[in-house]
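Key idea: predict the complex, not the pieces.
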Amino acid sequence: MITAERKPMEEILDYISPFQRIILVGCNECVTVCAAGGRKEVGLLSSALQMAFMKDGKTLSVNEITLERQCDPEYVEELVAHISQADAVLSMACGCGVQEIAKRFPQKPVFPALNTKFMGASESQGVWSERCKGCGDCILGLTGGICPVARCSKRIMNGPCGGSTNGKCEISPDVDCAWYLIWERLKALGQEDKYEDIIEAKDWRPSWHGGPRKIIREDLVE
Amino acid sequence: MKTESVLEKVLASGQLAVTSECGPPRGAQMNKVKEKAEMLRGCVDGINVTDNQTAMVRMSSLSACIIIKQMGLDPILQMVTRDRNRLAMQSDIIGAYTHGINTMLCLSGDHIHFGDHPMATNVYDLDSVQAIQMVKKMRDEGKFQGGEDINTPPKMFIGAAANPFADPFELRVARLAKKVKAGVNFIQTQCIYNLDKFETWMKGVCDRGLDEKVSILAGITPMKTAGMAKYMKNRVPGMDVPDELIKRMSGVPKEKMAEEGIKIAVESIERLKEVKGVAGFHIMAIEWEQKVHEIVERAGLLPRPQV
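Result:
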């Protein structure tokens, strides 16, 4: 899933302080799962914002709406009925959702309430960690199902580097050494010999270095 | 002979090679480079010039190498993949070779997290193994990494680092084997304080016959103080400093610590000379270049061969 965290209150207030009426839009997908921008968080932020306005002797009217998916134009369309009643939109979706709203309502200011973080998995209650960089050319089949692009701090394809200590990365004892994990996994699979195959220089074109990416599925295009 | 590198010639002659290093200044100070390099004249076969070591901005390795080359000495261009993509690396390699620099070291580099610009982006377009492949392809095939022909390809004698003390230890010989497979010619190791562990690693290297495919220079860093020894043990990633060594350094009065550090360095060299597969020494006297001559001399490695 795409993970996100709420921005600091001061930053959000800076964005919306000039306005009296906003729509606060949540999203029912990833950000609901990572407890950053679902219906519940929309309610909490709405109250917090109204209280902050009241403290300053102002009032804020908040229209709370949580869409099924903010990254999908079909659901963003649901905002049409409400948009004229608002001075601005505050989105609690990931960056994709914020941009969908901006695209649909070119005349309306839209602000992000979250910082979009990474594609990750849930490690335990309240803990998520990065798993995938979306490099566009998956090499997990070569690395025992553990990604060095996302999980090695130096993105090293032929690790571990000289800084690996007790299974941890040189940057912090709280960060696992991806290549330690890869090696342990290769051993468990009985694929130790695979380790010595050099992973060749990566072609970064399918990744973010090739410019903004797009998928066109001819079989689905109408 | 693949290159004009003095280091390659010394190693080919079968004699123990000696290299040392010079950290460029953190400013436009040509004299600093010259002063440090001058201290190494006549006692080494090559002078590594570090590339933004510990992720701190310094004069570029390439410019400092050119200064050293113009002094009639033999610089070794260090290049980390942290700060440059493959375009920048290849253009600098061509530039270096154009200035007569024919020996280089391919490294991934310390993570940016440790330096004075932790807010910067890490590049890591390639890793050190892939950088070795690239430099070899430029030299042996006359082709850029992207596949096109080079007019007058740079002929670099290719080095890399190895840390026998990093974890997992069981992978350390295999990782070297990968660098050998990629085409590395010489290796400079991490500073060796735990000689027993180094010898175990070296045995693994020799058992696989890797010592016949790559020249291994054992890394030596003299310690100035007991404090430095403790710092290296506790704070430098991938460093193995045995407690006995810290005890030995701490056991001498402060004014004698430096001499004790030098003594340990010389003793280490003497012992490692006897280890099969050790082809020479890389003496990293950090901000202590003036002591390299003395260490090399006391270790019986002078005069340097004329090749």
